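Write out the 3D structure for:
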Amino acid sequence: MQRTINGTTVELVKGDIAGQSDMDSVVNAANAWLRTGGGVAGAIHRAAGPGLEEECRPLAPIQPGEAVITGGHNLPNSHVIHCLGPVYGQDRPEEQLLADCYRNALHLAEENRLASVAFPALSTGAFGYPMEDAAEVALHTVLEVARGLTVHEDVLAVVGS
């Protein structure tokens, strides 16, 4: 699926978030302490190398819905945007917090003049957010934010392979 709004192209692909070499930045489905872990965070930290966790240390902890940005280290991307998504059924209001992740990540990308960003399906793994509900929040938020962007971005939604 691909859709363009206000010069921003949104595309859904199946693949490995840590292998999106044509993107300026990738989004990490982070934990509050921005440390390596399982799933997306583990894949990104392993691919980026130990420098990523070192750069993250002074930025932690973050709260659900927040986003911070670091360099890409050994990744093919210049930057990593770390978002802490809500734990479904625990962090409230979960829909707003998930939307804030996408909104804050896109604003960080724009502030840093990054023209492309790849998102994983935030909060859908260990955090338990139902995939269809999360996809609806993600798409709605990205399309809403795209209307106000001045840096026209390519947004890639990457679903694990």
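Strands lie at 2-5, 8-15, 25-29, 67-71, 79-83, 116-119, 154-160.
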